[in-house]
């Protein structure tokens, strides 16, 4: 089993859902950069779409997402209209692209009425060539009902991710997300009836009042509900960045040693239950597409975490949505009011991001292969000697090995994968307080 080396986990590191990370985004890019990137997409290219719904029925105290309370129907309706307008604006600017995946995330997509969701799906299918596109939706089980399940079935959604986090009522109370197990069970069965083939549960460790016993109980109960995939994330307590986390009593939070033990426990329970490990925090049934991508070397990492999506271009739609192109990352205005004003004016809503240099692209690819395949070829990278020096402590513990300039992580290096990846991060060679625990 994994060995705990506290000194290797002492420095906070990013999750590397992109490289460079969002911490490097600046405001020196805007709509012109998005116009240019869209116009440069070659006809026939397969792209992915992400639609952000920045509303939730109830706001959880731990949540770092760009979301607000879905307490005014008129506000939701206006947002959906603007999203439809943005879909048309973007579609006008691309020629002959094909959409391979359409993902709805948030927030909670099911904070909007099911009819509004179906309208959005129809708008996307009318505006783009979506033949055979895979449709996925994030769902908040609280309040999920038969009408929503019906919409999911009618739209042909094949993948759903449920926010579960913990099934322990005491921990739920401590994080402001009260969600009886029955909600999860009912939602899962409604989704199966609606024909959803792949259901994911998001779980968390390192939550306030969460012990190993409590985590074990949540995982065992989750496994009994037979999700196809699970992701087990470490809670990041960063109230200086996420003000709503100030409601969480920090005294009850696990330290690094306890977090490490909880991550190891989750890993062991899920692998013993027959799930394949995918990356460092995802798990999937061997027959699931994500496990198969991991087994065949096709696993990728993007803003949604580990994915089997091979598209090189992701177009984000909605407030705060991120678009990812090989040479740039572009984020839309976060504030829904200002986002709406830009869209109403017929403009694209891009306001932050960065341009990737050739060196960024090389390092980004190496970081991605460390996290997805446990290996990276550093031949073409500048500063290879410095990287080797920074990785010496990991080599000493047998967590990595070198074959020429190819770096290989051992199976025991899994909890250190992000820290190892951070040694290739040219923007992050000094300790930073902007990120949470390394495990
Ligand atoms: S439901 Fe999900 S997105 Fe909404 S506040 Fe809770 S954790 Fe955040």
From TrEMBL:
- What residues bind S-adenosyl-L-methionine 1, as annotated? 50, 106, 138, 322
Protein residues bound to [4Fe-4S] cluster:
56, 60, 63
Give one GO biological process term: protoporphyrinogen IX biosynthetic process
Keyword Cytoplasm set for record: yes
Domain of life, per UniProt, equals: Bacteria
- Where S-adenosyl-L-methionine 2 is bound, by residue? 62-64, 165, 177, 202, 236
Q: Which keywords appear in this protein's UniProt record, sorted alphabetically?
A: 4Fe-4S, Cytoplasm, Iron, Iron-sulfur, Metal-binding, Oxidoreductase, Porphyrin biosynthesis, S-adenosyl-L-methionine
Pathway of action? Porphyrin-containing compound metabolism; protoporphyrin-IX biosynthesis; protoporphyrinogen-IX from coproporphyrinogen-III (AdoMet route): step 1/1
- Cofactor comment: Binds 1 [4Fe-4S] cluster. The cluster is coordinated with 3 cysteines and an exchangeable S-adenosyl-L-methionine.
Q: What class of enzyme is it?
A: oxidoreductase
Claim: 4Fe-4S is one of the keywords in the record: yes
How does the annotation summarize its subunit structure?
A: Monomer.
Question: What is the similarity comment for this entry?
Answer: Belongs to the anaerobic coproporphyrinogen-III oxidase family.
Q: What is this protein called?
A: Coproporphyrinogen-III oxidase
Q: Species name for this entry?
A: Sphingomonas aerolata
Which lineage? Bacteria, Pseudomonadati, Pseudomonadota, Alphaproteobacteria, Sphingomonadales
């Amino acid at each position: 089993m994994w060995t705990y080396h506290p000194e290797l986990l002492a420095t906070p590191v990013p999750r590397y859902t992109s490289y460079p990370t969002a911490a490097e985004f600046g405001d020196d890019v805007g709509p012109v950069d998005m116009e240019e990137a869209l116009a440069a997409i070659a006809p026939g290219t397969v792209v992915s779409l992400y639609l952000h719904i920045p509303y939730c029925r109830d706001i959880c105290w731990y949540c770092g997402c760009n979301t607000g309370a879905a307490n005014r129907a008129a506000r939701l309706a206006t947002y959906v209209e603007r999203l439809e307008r943005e879909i048309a604006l973007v579609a006008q600017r691309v020629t002959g692209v094909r959409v391979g995946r359409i993902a709805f995330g948030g927030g909670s997509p099911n904070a909007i009425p099911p009819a509004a969701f179906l309208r959005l799906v129809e708008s996307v299918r009318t505006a783009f060539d979506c033949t055979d596109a895979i449709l996925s939706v994030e769902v908040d089980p609280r309040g999920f009902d038969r009408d929503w399940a019906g919409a999911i079935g009618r739209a042909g959604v094949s993948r759903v991710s449920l926010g579960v986090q913990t099934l322990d009522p005491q921990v739920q109370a401590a994080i402001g997300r009260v969600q009886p197990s029955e909600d999860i069970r009912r939602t899962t069965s409604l989704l199966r009836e609606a024909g959803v083939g792949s259901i994911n549960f998001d779980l968390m460790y390192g939550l306030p009042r969460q012990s190993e016993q409590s985590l074990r109980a949540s995982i065992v109960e989750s496994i009994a509900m037979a999700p196809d995939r699970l992701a087990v994330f470490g809670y990041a307590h960063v109230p200086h960045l996420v003000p709503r986390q100030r409601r969480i009593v920090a005294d009850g939070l696990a330290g690094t040693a306890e977090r490490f033990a909880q991550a190891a426990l989750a890993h062991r329970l899920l692998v013993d239950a027959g799930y394949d490990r995918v990356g460092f925090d995802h798990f999937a049934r061997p027959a699931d597409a994500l496990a198969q991508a991991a087994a065949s070397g096709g696993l990728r990492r993007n803003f949604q975490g580990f994915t089997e999506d091979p598209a090189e271009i992701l177009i984000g739609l909605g407030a705060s949505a991120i678009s990812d192109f090989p040479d740039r990352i572009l984020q839309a205005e976060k504030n829904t009011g200002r986002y709406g004003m830009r869209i109403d004016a017929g403009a694209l809503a891009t306001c932050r991001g960065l341009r990737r240099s050739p060196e960024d692209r090389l390092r980004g690819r190496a970081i991605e292969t460390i996290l997805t395949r446990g290996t990276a070829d550093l031949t073409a990278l500048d500063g290879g000697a410095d990287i080797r020096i920074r990785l010496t402590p990991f080599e000493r513990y047998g967590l990595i090995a070198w074959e020429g300039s190819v770096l290989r992580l051992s199976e025991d290096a899994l909890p250190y994968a992000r820290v190892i990846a951070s040694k290739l991060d040219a923007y992050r060679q000094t300790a930073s307080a902007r990120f949470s625990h390394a495990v």
